[in-house]
Write a structure and sequence with these properties.
The protein is an alpha+beta fold and about 350 residues long. The protein has eleven helices and eight strands.
């Protein structure tokens, strides 16, 4: 090898600069260095024997076929909506009436007695319609008090009732019927507007008819119900009775088989007095009824109490039904071998 000329500088290669990764912070997990901003990521390699890596922009949890071009004319894939597929929360009769929302349902689930209680306890304003294909009743509430009652049954016709009671004659009734369209369709408003009756003198007769419709409406068995909030009663309307007194009277007027039918399987369950939207003293019960209500001790079933008090068995069942529909009586699990209710003889309501 020839020697390098003297005086010439030695030739050395330039230094190579390498990027030294920043040491991890104390306590940070060890791992590969983060990619530079803006650099494309090739994605993690597929494990040996495992599935191939997902294409760019497709996550591991994407549905099959994601990332592939859609076939011509194929519908666009549905975008999942949060909450879709979950059942909508059920709106109960109590929540709808208290919130002033229209609602409807079968009477087999919510009885007329319970619906009346809900409207009265909420001091609601609106119209409650109960009935079936054969006919029905409409009760209009104002601040929780029924101020107007109507029926589609011919035997409940107000005009016929007033003629039978001698309040008006046939000719006067025909005159009012022809003019009732000018008074919003209300017969009483037409009779008063035409000065065919004196409201003060006929108050008790009109109240008697209206209260009878309320009792029959609350005794309805089967069919459907509908609540229409905000429906106002006619101008000639007035309170048809005490708000809780009418509920109690409706239960008192039910025949014995009707009481047992409405109690159903609850008669074989342990009954316990509970607090509700109202107090039991609001019902204005008689002293006898109050004493019977004290028998619900949370230990015995309704039928066990009725069997122990044979002379008051019917009243025990009536008070159980009244408190149950007023949310003042709770029922435990059905007791095996509980005494079945004895069939009661039908009795005509007073």
């Amino acid at each position: 090898m020839a020697d390098k000329p003297k005086g010439s500088p030695a030739h050395t290669p330039p230094p190579v600069l390498q990027r030294v990764p920043r040491p991890p912070a104390p306590g940070a997990p060890a791992g590969p260095p983060a990619a530079r901003p803006g650099a494309p990521s090739a994605g993690p390699p597929a494990p040996p024997g495992g599935p191939p890596a997902s294409p760019a922009g497709v996550s591991a949890g994407s549905p099959p076929g994601a990332g592939r071009p859609a076939a011509p004319g194929a519908p666009a894939p549905a975008v999942p909506v949060p909450g879709r597929g979950l059942p909508a929360p059920e709106v109960t009769a109590a929540a709808a009436i208290a919130a002033g929302l229209p609602h409807e349902g079968p009477l087999a689930k919510d009885s007329p007695l319970h619906l009346y209680y809900l409207a009265t306890a909420a001091q609601a304003a609106g119209r409650l319609t109960v009935g079936s294909e054969r006919g029905g009743y409409a009760l209009t509430f104002k601040k929780g008090v029924v101020e107007h009652a109507a029926s589609t049954f011919r035997q409940d016709d107000l005009g016929t009732f007033l003629v039978k009671r001698g309040v008006v004659g046939e000719a006067q009734l025909s005159q009012a019927q022809e003019a009732r369209g000018k008074f919003g369709g209300d017969l009483v408003s037409a009779l008063v507007g035409l000065r065919l009756i004196d409201p003060a003198a006929t108050f008790q007769v009109l109240q008697e008819h209206g209260a009878g419709l309320v009792w029959r409406a609350l005794a309805a068995d089967g069919g459907t119900w509908r609540w229409e909030p905000g429906m106002a009663p006619p101008p000639s309307s007035f309170p048809l009775g005490s708000r809780w007194g009418m509920l109690c009277d409706a239960v008192r007027r039910l025949d014995a088989p009707g009481v047992q039918k409405r109690l159903g399987g609850r008669a074989g369950r342990v009954a316990t007095r509970v607090g509700g939207r109202i107090d039991v003293n609001d019902l204005k019960l008689t002293s006898h009824e109050v004493r019977v209500c004290a028998l619900f001790d949370g230990v015995r079933t309704i039928e066990e109490i009725a069997s122990a008090q044979p002379a008051e068995a019917d009243l025990v069942r009536r008070m159980a039904l009244l408190l149950a529909e007023s949310e003042l009586l709770a029922f435990g699990a059905e007791r095996p071998g509980a005494a079945a209710p004895r069939p009661a003889a039908a009795a005509a309501p007073p």
